Description:
alpha/beta, Udp-n-acetylmuramoylalanyl-d-glutamate--2,6- Diaminopimelate Ligase, Chain: A, domain 1, eleven-stranded parallel β-sheet, ten-stranded parallel β-sheet, 28% strand
Amino acid sequence: MNGVALGEIAAQLGGDLVGDAALRINRLGSLESATPTTLCFIATPRYQAQLSATRAGCVVVPPALREAAVERGAAIVTPDPHLYFARLSQWWVVRTGARPAPGIHPSAQVHASARIDASASIGPLCVIEADVVIGARVVVGAHCVIGSGASIGDDTRLDAQVSFGAASHIGARGIIHSGAVIGADGFGFAPHEGTWIKVEQFGGVRIGDDVEIGANTCIDRGALDDTVIGDGVKLDNQVQVGHNVRIGAHTAVAGCAGIAGSTTIGAYCTIAGAVGIGGHLTLGDHVHIRAFSGVMQSITRPGVYTGTFPIDENANWEKNAATLRHLYSLRNRLRALEKKSS
């Protein structure tokens, strides 16, 4: 690859380019592994020491590091280097990456009633069932299964071995990574004399635009109504989303989090890794849950929440949890009493 001139990058993405606009970049990389044809970024002045040591041809920096960056070579100065680099990475993939050729691989099994845009790419050994609709420039990787009545919006990509169940729908510009299962049955059973009787699941999954779903993540279909994932939601690897869950726009959920059925999560929330959220709860907009927390009651007020507590017999746990909630006020009362007695 001949690379991309810094001037072309700045013309496409903005930023204040200082240095040789003709310098060609052939890779994006880290400060530590950079070569003279690598472009890197530094988000904050905390990493200034790495700036002087890197061999990178160009570094994207905040205004506070402008002088230090210019002393060592070319730089692009922008208020938010991390955001700039994110947009650069997307542009780079489009500019330099190879897209699969449009068409349907001869080994794919496609039902006669499926409607597939001529610009879409269907990989080897895929199965496309009845009444599926696949939009423009969609890429379906090898060994994917698209269930009957499903639809995939324009410019969405399914990596290899994705199971996209019947009556599942995803909007435009989505990404579903390998091993994800969309539209499996929800975990619904009725107890009967020590056994479990399955409750059949009749809903689907509705996923908005610009959603990314990580590898081996599972989103269950609804029991009666649909499970709904809003626009711009980002789900990490190995996330479990139970049946009839609703996740609001632009919420991000990190790896190994589990969301039990019929819970509603608002917009612009963050759920950190290994968080467990109980069923039939509501989390309002702008609620942020820290890692390894267990959410067992609804949270309506925006804010950052953390909760871990050792397992115990439930009756003891409830008493201790109730006391713990008042611990801060009890501490203040104790301090006041100590001052009074002294």
